[in-house]
From TrEMBL:
Coiled-coil region(s): none
Top EC class for this record: hydrolase
One Pfam family from the record: Amidohydro_1
Pathway: Purine metabolism; guanine degradation; xanthine from guanine: step 1/1
The protein's name in its UniProt record: Guanine deaminase
Span of domain Amidohydrolase-related: 67-427
Swiss-Prot/TrEMBL keywords: Hydrolase, Metal-binding, Zinc
Binding note for cofactor: Binds 1 zinc ion per subunit.
Amino acid sequence: MSDITLHLGQTLWFTDNPMTEGPDAARFDPRGAIAVQDGHVLARGTADDLRRDHPQAAVEDHGQALILPGFIDAHVHYPQTAMIASWGKRLIDWLNTYTFPEEMRFGDADYAAEIAGRYLDLALAHGTTTMCSYCTIHPQSVEAYFNAAQARGMRVLGGKTCMDRNAPDGLRDTAQSAYDDSKALLARWHGQGRASYVITPRFSPTSTPDQLSALGALWAEHPDCLMQTHLSEQTDEIAWVRGIYPQARDYLDTYEAHGLLGANGVYGHAIHLEPRERDRLREVGAALVHCPTSNTFIGSGLFDMAGLVAEGQRVGLATDTGGGSSFSMLRTMAAAYEVAQLRGTALHPSALLWLATEGSARSLRIADRVGNLAPGTEADFITLDLGSTPAIAQRSRRAADIWEAVFPTIMMGDDRAVSGVWVMGQRMG
């Protein structure tokens, strides 16, 4: 008996980046299939071809559902799960009013485990199979996150958030403890199963120069790791940075001067960038992560997607849970479309789907493993019902092509549109 399973349905993948190459970079098959074996994609093609090539394979026919890679959320704060959609604050007040009090609870390992499990289950229900998360300053928050992901077989990235100033008592570490804790957690988790450790200074205002230098030194010791932080999210934040780093040329320079700028850097938000910052980010090949629901919810500004892509920046997409107001990458794609419209660009559905899958995988340097349906990659995939609600169904029935069929789900879909989720070939929901 074959241990191969064929998944039949409508299939969509990319041969190139549709952000630069247009919709022709997509490959759509209205009756396609993927073959899965031992948790990996064995082959992809037409349903007829794969059935002929693997006559003994088990078959799961998903009908008209669209088979896609699992969504990849490139910037989240899993500890903010319980406080998502908190009302009415700008970034700095929002952190002090909602975020920091909630994050202080993660010194309790049981609470951290509860929220980590809750977050991952919510993410899976919305079709997200991989994410890159900030944890809290507490090592147990990192243990909880990676343990919960390991129990579900998920590929995840994350790290201990480091802060040694401008945060409440009980939510600060030191330059030395940030280095020591991060190094120990990295040794424990990086490359363990499907886990990747990410060096994680929250942002320059909550780290002293000594702490940034310590984390820069750790990154230099482990250059294969990613480093994630925040950059130029709000204008008042930038003014704050300017005040406490008066010697810096700009916000990015507060990282660059301490060894925290590089090709494996992942910089969240990046809305209000100076020309020098844009040039340096492109030169080193760093990744920028667009968090549209967060940027509109907290009033941060409008990300320059078209301009950044045109100048050669690497860009991913993220919910920014819980500054973002949804766990759904569908809602995030819709918000990205709306933000781009306000800047004069209509992002094509192919670009939105690419950003939420392979684009985010590229930003996290894991596109060789997830984010597409290429043979040899890990079999993390979802099925989308393109008629999940009456409103969506009545619009998609009028579609002339796949893009008209899927766009209503991007704009109006939620977890009801996610009809199935597989992690390493195992059905999760």
